[in-house]
């Protein structure tokens, strides 16, 4: 993806001064070899850290070699102070893992006690208010630690991306859409910058791009992507003008940041003034790794970007929209798939899902808006059923009192024709009905949910933990009751 960082990983081994340093160095080399055999690239720092001076030297070494993410490996018990100060001095995403003992034949001279060292490490990290990624079970063989490192890569990519991200918004939010409104304080706590603009600023920039020489080539690319679905070719030049406008704004306004996403107002005055709806352009930018959320949904855009960093694939943002009709469930889902009616719902948005994620695609007008506006100003949606397959539904959100919450749920899009309009699909998530009531409704989440195309729940959950999110909802199985779930219902 063009709009996400490249992770350059390093590894530093640490050693308690009363344990053999050679033990930690040897185990570090084994981890590096195992990771490289799996196709990973990692810089092996030659300095093994025993004390604070070693720590400064090792951190300087990995920085000089371009590392922006780091694994600290406890080859033995490890020095509590120095190993935690590595994270403080490095100032980037960091993972801690520890060596398992290799064999019962070496428990006299080569016992490392890193299993114990991880406990002291975690205590010291907390004392210094340092966040780090510690795998679910952080003690392992070289091969197992290599697998942990592979899981760390998308986590590190996301943390780096957020630290260099600017969200650009054009607003304000539409009337009666308070659900997408949330305090921006937590963005700064996450290290994200935000630039809030008026939609009038966007309109002025759009008009300044009239007759831009790049417009014909962009319109031609749109026509090629749409293929037989190009039912409204006359609107493509305006859409191309808008795409060029947004890309130029991103380039000219990123400032000190490397990565940009948008949260843009898209109704009701947008249609009458711009003369189209922006959905298709939003979908195209999402396909480039630059999500554009609808309805000035700032935390929706942030969530989409997190999904993009984790999956390295296109994401989308959909309304958690409507129930599946019972007759449709009975005829097309029941007995074919292991879901109840309450496990299913339809996710929908006007047309912001990238063409590569649609089973079929067609340029249309926005049906809902055309009920109150002239049809000709509602052209610009990309419509079609979203491709079936595994998905992760998720969102990071600030509450009204500026607390971070998140949810993650894995499920799938069913290969069931929606017989409806927009970019839309029939979703199935195990125990969705209870999740809908006790997480989405009870925790006051807005109606927008981000969708990653694949199962990324494990990594996403760890990302939210790393970000300091204390409350992470998920679709709990039947045997796990929600705190407020009525036991008699």
Which short descriptors sum up this protein?
5-stranded parallel β-sheet; 6-stranded antiparallel β-barrel; 15 helices; 489 residues; alpha/beta; globular
What this model shows, in words?
With 489 residues, the protein is α/β, with parallel strands linked by helices. 36% of the residues lie in helices and 21% in strands. It is built from 15 helices and 18 strands. The chain has helices at 21-37, 52-64, 80-90, 114-127, 142-163, 185-189, 199-208, 215-226, 236-253, 269-274, 279-287, 298-311, 326-332, 432-441, 457-466, and strands at residues 9-14, 43-44, 69-74, 94-99, 139-140, 165-171, 193-198, 259-264, 292-293, 315-322, 344-349, 362-365, 379-385, 389-398, 404-413, 423-428, 448-452, 471-474. It has a six-stranded antiparallel barrel, surrounded by four helices. Strand 6 (165-171), helix 6 and strand 7 (193-198) form a beta-alpha-beta unit. Helix 1 (21-37) crosses helix 5, helix 5 (142-163) packs antiparallel against helix 12 (298-311) and helix 5 (142-163) packs across helix 15. It is globular.
